Amino acid sequence: MKKPGNNLLPYVEGIRDKFSQHRNSVNSGPMKKYMRDQFEFFGIKSVLRRELSKEYIKFVGLPSRNELEKTIIQLWNQPERELQYFAMELLAASKKMWEPTDMKWIEKLVTTKSWWDTVDFLASNVAGPWFRKFPEKKSEITSRWNASENFWLQRMSILFQLKYKAETDTKILRSYILPLMESKEFFIRKAIGWALREYAKTDPKFVSKLVKELPLSPLSKKEAMKGIERIRKREEAL
After folding, report:
1. How crowded is the C-beta side of 137, counted as CA atoms within 13 Å?
2. Is the pTM of this model over 0.85?
3. Treating both helix axes as pointing N-terminal to C-terminal, what angle do 151-159 and 170-177 enclose, rounded to 10 degrees?
4. Would you report the helix, strand and coil content of the chain in percent, each value rounded to 5?
5. Exposure pattern of 214-233 as b/e (b: 16+ CB <10 Å)?
6. Nearest CA to 68 among 92, 46, 51, 44?
7. 139: Cβ–Cβ under 8 A, 6 or more apart, which residues?
8. pLDDT averaged over the chain?
9. pLDDT for 1 beyond 50
């Protein structure tokens, strides 16, 4: 089978060949439909795909630092969605190589071939750890995302702290919710609720107070209160 594109790095060709060997046309149609026909698929379900990815990285290793950006970008430019998933997982696995200038090109992954599946992974598994590694970059970059006209970047600004738990900067979380809480965009309203629902596991009083204070959309409020309700039910059961 002829590979799309020219001059692919051997690393990219290798994982492309591995995935191609497991192409499944029975699965690819429904997977494409689930993503609203925006992306092509090999038709590899997530469990098998992760197994193949782990096998490949274990056998071949990670790309060198000098080829990391080019490898990720080439993977991202491939038509099949599974290769974008592999690119993200590879990027997350390469965090020891990350440098302060990397967010310039990582951001391009957010704004191209954008959908919730890639943006949400990049927010919590790449951007979140990256800002922990380079905290001096956090305020400037995330505030720019929050003020962007690109709602995927706005979503990133809300979700990058999703796994921070007690390390969550609540001032940033609140200040980033304020300008977006009246957004009509579903993915923004959902992100606000999701971020608050997750943080409620750490500080339910903060979330409860914020929900009462702010005129959040019904969707954001409903999602946020799920976290509070779960805690309340758990306490009642004790």
Report:
1. 16
2. yes
3. 150
4. 70, 0, 25
5. bebbeebbbbbbebbeeeee
6. 92
7. 172
8. 95
9. no
Identify the sign of the CA torsion 207, 210, 216, 218: positive
Question: What digits encode the pLDDT tens for the residues 47-91?
Answer: 999 999 999 999 999 999 999 999 999 999 999 999 999 999 999
The model's pLDDT over 151-184, given as tens digits with 9 standing for 90+, comes to: 999 999 999 999 999 999 999 999 999 999 999 9
Q: Integer distance in angstroms from the first to the last C-alpha of the chain?
A: 60
Using an 8 Å Cβ cutoff, are 220 and 192 in contact?
A: yes
Q: Using an 8 Å Cβ cutoff, are 43 and 52 in contact? A: no
For the chain, what is the largest distance between any 2 Cα atoms, rounded to a whole number of angstroms? 62
Position 208: which residue type? S
